[in-house]
């Protein structure tokens, strides 16, 4: 096993966590153990592994050495118990809900979350008797007021998709715990380089690894990081049977991407600061939301809770949806596509794309106006991105 990395900084952890020389071959890069099943030396050994009385792998849905490295790596960065890898970020959320909630219980969530995270609760889990309500969790009084006697989970996404509004994680943890509920934080937008919710009192963290942690726009993947071994045991049981598992090759790609997490996050964030200021000063731009700007409603919270404001910006062009559409159709260097957190800048229109499945009135109540444009700034040269914004805004 690797030496204890918990004493190191997150950049060191990103480079080394889950990385140890392969005992069989001496390989420095991790082997891809591309197998569905593992042979037992004897019938007795197989039975002992199934009974949990002996260490060792059984079947890749239940565990795999390449995937285990990634589970260790992300957990190290988040400061949690060994992670549980999933085939997607949605797989992570569904695994958490399936394992920690029961029919008749209630979840309070952030109103501005990734659209499908909300729709799966409201449309699909409701069919199994789970209740949910989504409120502006930036407003702690609104969160407190939404708690019901049967609330067992508070689900916070901060920074939120796509509004980049922030929720106070420590305060949300206090409110959840006062009522005996668990706090789950979707840390996808920040990545553990910028924010570690378990340190602030959250019980479980989830990620779409598709985004910053993999960072190269070439896989879809997710991760659950429970804060304690007890919570891990509860989630692990369901994880093994739910089927939202990861593939070893996917894990290997995510691990390789994660090695450069720190430098990618810093470069993209530096670019985002320059671009947010450029957009805020542009006469054709109505408003800009970026946690690094003093104009952001939770700018002070960003400074307190995060190690940096990240690289997601939302803004609206004067002229609303028509002007925004014109801008999106005019970009040249930036790519018009959903997803985020990759090395390349991606720009999209949430109300017709990532958040289209939400009801229009729910979108507006969550601060997702029809003209809102979301951009995930990448690692290109800032002046080239500005030139692209300049030429695209001229077309508006
Ligand atoms: N959580 C957040 C905050 C997300 O942004 C996403 C995906 C998910 C969970 C789900 O992860 P997935 O299953 O896709 O790995 N967000 C997307 C977005 O904004 N555009 O495309 C996907």
Strand fraction band? 5-15%
The main β sheet shows up as:
7 strands, mixed
Q: What bound compounds does this protein have?
A: ligand LCS
Helix content estimate: 25-40%
CATH class (first level) name of the largest domain: Alpha Beta
**Element-level helix/strand string:** HHHEHEHEHEHEHEEHHHEHEHEEHEH
* Principal-axes shape call: globular
Mean pLDDT: 97
What multimeric state do the chains show? single chain
**Overall number of domains:** 2
Structural class: alpha/beta
- β-strand number: 12
**Individual helix count:** 15
**How far is it from the N-terminal to the C-terminal residue, by CA?**
56 Å
Q: What does this protein look like?
A:
By secondary structure, the chain is an alpha/beta fold. The protein has two domains: 8-258, Aspartate Aminotransferase, domain 2, CATH 3.40.640; 261-394, Aspartate Aminotransferase, domain 1, CATH 3.90.1150. It has helices spanning 10-16, 43-50, 65-78, 89-100, 115-124, 140-146, 169-178, 191-194, 229-242, 248-258, 261-281, 299-305, 320-330, 360-365, 382-394; strands spanning 84-86, 106-110, 131-135, 151-157, 182-186, 204-208, 222-226, 285-289, 312-317, 335-336, 346-348, 372-376. Strands 1-7-6-5-4-2-3 form a seven-stranded mixed β-sheet, with helices on both faces. Strands 8-9-12-11-10 form a five-stranded mixed β-sheet. Helix 7 links the parallel strand 4 and strand 5. Helix 3 (65-78) runs parallel beside helix 10 (248-258). The site of ligand LCS has 18 residues, from helix 4.
